[in-house]
Structure formats: C-alpha cells, structure tokens
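User: Design a sequence. Structure:
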C-alpha cells in the first residue's frame, strides 16, 4: 500500500483507479474534479445529546472517540458506494441506445466519482493516517470482485434496464442517506451534502424518466421489467440497515446522522426504529413512482408493483427467510422454484439482449445543447 502524504498523492491513485477499471478519461472531457461545499442548515447541532452546541469543524472538536470512529466508518461506507457504482456501470458506455442516454450515463458516472472524491477528501483532510489509509482502500476494492462493503454494490449491472432500475431505486436510497447526513453535527460532512444532493437529483430523474420512456416505447413487456424490480428493490431495502439498529440509535444521539425528515416533522424520534422509519418513507415514495409508471402501462399488460418488504432480504428481521414476492411465507423448496419464476432467467436476459439490438426499446429523447 502506498503511503499518502497529501491529497495530491491520493489524486494520483484516483487516476490510476480510473485507468485500472477501464475509464477512458476522454469520455469525461474537461470535467474538473473537486471537493464542493454548500451552506449548513444550521450552525448549531440540530438533534441528539449535543443539540444547541456549535457543529464540529474538525475531528479534534468531537468530544468522544466513539463518535469519531462512527463518523470515520460512515465516510468509508459512503465513499465505497460511490466508487462501486462507477465500477458497476462502466461497461454500459459501449451499448448506449442513443446520444442522450450516453450523455446521462457519463454525467452520472462522473458525478459518482466526484462524490467518492468528496468523501476521500474528508478522510484525508480530517482523519490523519487512518483516513489516508481508508481513502486508499476505497480505490482498491472492486465491485466486480464482489468485495465492496455493501452487497447491493457488488451486484452486476448487466444491461441498460438494470441501469435504469438501479438509478430509480438504488440511487434513491442514496438520496435518503445523503439527506440524513445533511443535518450532521460534523460540519464538513453536512456542508458536503447540498452539492451532492443537487447532483444526485439528476441521477434519480434519469432512472424514473428512463423507465417511463421504456414503458412508453412498448418493446419491453412489463412482466420483464417487474423481474428487474424484484432483483434490485430488496437489496435497496437492505441498504437502510438492520432493524432495531443500535448503530443508528447512537448516531442520532451523537448528532452524526438525522432522520430523513429531520426539521420537517414534529413526531417524537423513535431511537430504536430509525432505519425502519426511513425505509417506510422510502417505500411510500416508491409506491408513488410506480403508480406514475403504471399510468403508461397498456391495459393488456400487468401493472408494476413493489416486492414485499420481506422478499429476498439479506439483513434484518426477515433475513434469509422464504418469503414470496407478495410476502407469503413458503417452504424452502417452493421458494427456490418461486425465485426462478420472479427473477430474470437466462432466457429473459437473452430476450433483453435481442430487444436491445435496436434502439427503439426506449423512447428517444434529444440531447440539450
């Protein structure tokens, strides 16, 4: 492992990472990577045991080593997801259906790289030797080697339907995580969120509007789109964390991570069910998005729906149990057969490949000048 002395040393490793995973920097053009900061929602800590005190500008201001350790871990995980998503999506550049979608993909990948850059900047700037070591590790793990920190970021984004479902659902989880950090007691992290959230909004729009364009094009049947939903949504549920999480409990008490609707709700905080509360808001938003998609589904095709919260969960109260996509508990044998029916099969993937040979599988959209 190289020894980093400055952030410029990390930048050299970042460029090497781009090369190693096959990113052609000419595709990115003259984009200027930099750490960006916005305004604080409040100069004072907004919730938890330290509410009313000034937000912490440096790690030295943080009053407890446990808080510093938890903050370090949050930065590591967030940065890991950003670089992982680029690794998952990088190969789609060669199969874009049109110039608009190619432009959108490149923009999303570039902004995800910048978000990873942002987290690495915080690590190197504020966490000394340990931060430099962890910032370097962010560039050493690989999604395609399945050693990124969160399971959803090791999954294969095989084709463009994967990409659109991913940006609709998985990037939307990212919006929730970033919004909860928007209120963090660590001021540099809180200031990092407004630019990241602004950029993330384009990613979400790409996913939702892209899926509407797919539905309106009428080439990919809704039953097949549903199978992609069944593939990705359970992993997104998992990204909110375990049920009854003590980590989320303490992160709130310490002021590191607020609720998604922090400052906009008068409901008392339920410290023992913070992850569940955020996930419930996410599900409510997804239901509205799917209702919007269903308005474009032809009458002779099945409407789209969310998989049940218990289906294919890998963490939490329902982890690794045999619940069907509608939430029915099944025998293990019946469950294995069920998965073959509700997830993309090799035959389904062959159909997708065939449909995507022509660009009319998605409604065209002009590139803005």
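Assistant: Done.
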């Amino acid at each position: 492992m190289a020894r980093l002395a400055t952030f410029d040393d990390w930048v050299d490793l970042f460029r090497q990472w781009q090369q190693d995973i096959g990113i052609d920097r000419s595709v990115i053009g003259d984009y200027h990577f930099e750490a960006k900061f916005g305004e604080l929602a409040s100069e004072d800590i907004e919730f938890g045991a330290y509410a009313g005190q000034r937000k912490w500008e440096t790690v030295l201001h943080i009053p407890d080593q446990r808080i510093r350790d938890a903050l370090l871990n949050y930065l590591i995980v967030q940065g890991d997801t950003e670089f992982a998503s680029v690794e998952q999506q990088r190969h789609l550049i060669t199969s874009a259906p049109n110039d608009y979608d190619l432009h959108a993909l490149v923009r999303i990948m570039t902004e995800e790289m910048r978000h990873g850059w942002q987290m690495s900047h915080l690590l190197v700037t504020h966490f000394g030797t340990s931060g430099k070591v962890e910032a370097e590790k962010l560039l050493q793990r690989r999604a395609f080697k399945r050693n990124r920190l969160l399971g959803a970021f090791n999954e294969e984004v095989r084709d463009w339907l994967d990409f659109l479902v991913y940006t609709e659902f998985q990037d939307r989880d990212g919006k929730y995580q970033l919004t909860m950090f928007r209120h963090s007691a660590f001021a540099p992290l809180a200031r990092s969120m407004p630019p990241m959230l602004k950029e993330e909004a384009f990613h979400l729009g790409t996913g939702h509007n892209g899926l509407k364009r797919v539905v309106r094009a009428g080439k990919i049947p809704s039953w097949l789109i549903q199978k992609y939903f069944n593939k990705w949504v359970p992993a997104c549920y998992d990204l909110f964390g375990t049920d009854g999480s003590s980590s989320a409990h303490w992160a709130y008490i310490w002021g590191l991570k607020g609720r998604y609707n922090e400052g906009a709700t008068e409901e008392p905080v339920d410290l023992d069910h913070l992850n569940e509360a955020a996930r419930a808001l996410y599900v409510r938003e997804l239901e509205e998005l799917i209702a919007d998609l269903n308005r474009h589904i032809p009458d002779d095709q099945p409407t789209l729906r969310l998989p049940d919260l218990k289906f294919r969960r890998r963490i939490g109260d329902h982890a690794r149990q045999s619940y069907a996509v509608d939430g029915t508990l099944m025998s293990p044998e019946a469950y294995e057969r069920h998965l073959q029916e509700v997830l993309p099969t090799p035959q389904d993937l062959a159909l997708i490949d065939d449909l995507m040979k022509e660009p009319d599988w998605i409604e065209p959209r002009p590139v803005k000048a």
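The longest helix spans residues 187-217. The chain has one domain: 42-360.
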